[in-house]
Amino acid sequence: MDDYNVTDLYKEVASIIYDEIEDYEKAEDWFNDLLSHGCISGMVCALIYYKDTHAFTKKYLDDILELQQDMNSQGLEVHIPNDTDAQNWLAWFAFEETSRQIAIDLGMEV
């Protein structure tokens, strides 16, 4: 794990993962479910309701926007769809992409 990746957002996502993953026999299975089905599936209890996703986005907005900018600079154009709740979308985007990075940092193939 590189220190430059350890933002407040990264720490919060890791904490949520720790709480969520206990029902899985293998951690890789949880990550694969998340990265296949996304937060929209409801598997991340902390990010189901708008009140929670909006609070998450507000609290970690700087880190989320930095993540979005980093991905855009790598040629992975990340834009908020017009037909969605922007704060909800940003929370799910940030959680999923940060989870992907955590899995990679843990040496998982995702």
Major sheet details: none
Residue runs with pLDDT of under 50 for 5 or more positions: none
Annotation, overall tally of beta strands? 0
Distance between the termini: 16 Å
Rg over CA atoms, rounded to whole Å, is 13 Å
Q: How much strand? A: under 5%
- Helicity level: 55-70%
Total DSSP helices: 4
Output the helix-strand order: HHHH
Mean pLDDT: 93
Shape: globular
Structural class: mainly alpha
Describe the structure.
With about 110 residues, this protein is mainly α. The chain has 4 helices and no strands. The protein has helices spanning about 10-20, 25-35, 50-75, 85-105. α1 (about 10-20) packs across α4 (about 85-105). The longest helix has 24 residues, at about 50-75. It is globular and about 35 Å long. The protein starts with 7 loop residues before the first helix and ends in a 5-residue tail after the last helix.
Topology overview:
Elements: H1 8-20, H2 27-37, H3 50-73, H4 86-105
Helix pairs in contact: 1-4, 2-4, 3-4
Features:
110 residues
Write a brief caption for the model:
The protein has 110 residues and is mainly alpha-helical.
